[in-house]
Design brief:
It is built from 5 helices and no strands. With 119 residues, the protein is mainly alpha-helical. It has one domain (5-98). Belongs to the perilipin family.
């Protein structure tokens, strides 16, 4: 079976560490700002519901277009190979990503420091 281009993209250290950072900041923000937490939970529930409905509705279309999807996946893998070759930094965490440690309840804010964002 061919490798999924999406899995390969998400497995790149730069991409996976960025996703992790966003997740940690979001969770810390949600926990440290009680007024925001209910809105985040409603949004999460909505996204889960929409994704579930979309997946169920899209299943017949995905089956119908499987050959085209497989071709697009192969093409994407080919371009990922070329991109990884041209930009080897994508395979490294790099200095910035390795410093993205979020300790305790100090989320990294948009400025890149751990100064509290507000009450």
């Amino acid at each position: 079976m061919a490798m999924s281009s999406m899995k390969r993209l998400l497995d790149l250290p730069l991409v996976s560490s960025t996703c992790y950072l966003v997740s940690v900041v979001y969770c810390n923000m949600k926990e440290s700002h009680p007024r925001v937490k209910p809105f985040c939970e409603v949004a999460e529930t909505g996204v889960k519901t929409i994704a579930s409905v979309a997946a169920t509705g899209a299943a017949p279309i995905i089956v119908k277009f499987q050959p085209q999807i497989a071709g697009a996946n192969q093409l994407m893998c080919k371009y990922l190979d070329k991109t990884e070759e041209a930009f080897p930094v994508l395979q490294q965490l790099g200095i910035c990503a390795s410093n993205w440690k979020v300790a305790g309840s100090n989320p990294v804010n948009a400025r890149g420091d751990t100064t509290p964002l507000g009450p």
